[in-house]
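Any chance you'd type out a single protein's sequence alongside its tokenized fold?
>
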Amino acid sequence: MQTEKNIAYKTMLITGASRGIGAATALLAAKKGYVVAVNYNKNKEAAAKVVDTIKQQGGLAKAFRADVSKEEEIVRLFEDVDAEFGNLTSLVNNAGILEQQSRLENITRQRLQRIFEANTWSTFLCCKEAIKRMSPKYGGNGGTIVNVSSIASRTGSPFEYIDYAASKGAVDAMTIGLAKELADENIRVNAVRPAFIYTDIHSDGGEPNRIERIKETIPLKRGGLASEVAEAILWLASEQSSYSTGVFIDVTGGR
């Protein structure tokens, strides 16, 4: 698939892009002219569907399997994207998990390890690999990183996902610090904080209809769409946000 034309392309790697916000971001990125590296872990069929849709619309994309909770697989993922598409322009750290709703005293150390490996360590380690490709110190031309956090990082998500909230709070702190570290290397680092978005992650937490239960407490009185979060991500990844780094866009319906 790699051609000489790839050198001029904008390449975006999106982790966890087989479903939900990641898939919506991949589709929108392709429409905006990016070559899209669609990362997935388990759902090969869903990732292939995203890639096929992009190709049917005239875009260029490929699926890359990697468990981004594991450092060795992250390194291989970036190497595979290098080999296929060349220069990395943008990284979207979207992959993440949550588990069944629980109070803190019922959360095991093993669960904490799974949550932080998938949500926090993955983001740190993917950023590390992106810097090695984007920074002028390593021969790069700059780029953008967008971290998908959550409004839970501000609310703490009591009685439901306090571990998930803490993992996203760490991502928020890293976003601010890394934006300052990389500001003079032409790499901008920003984040979106979605909430109450219609995706199947709520089923993972044991309450697939959670948004319907709480939507009257949302000022806009509805849940959000993955495509609405994707719009915020693509703005932060683009030159339209060229004077923004270390900032957050809350896509939360007013909460």
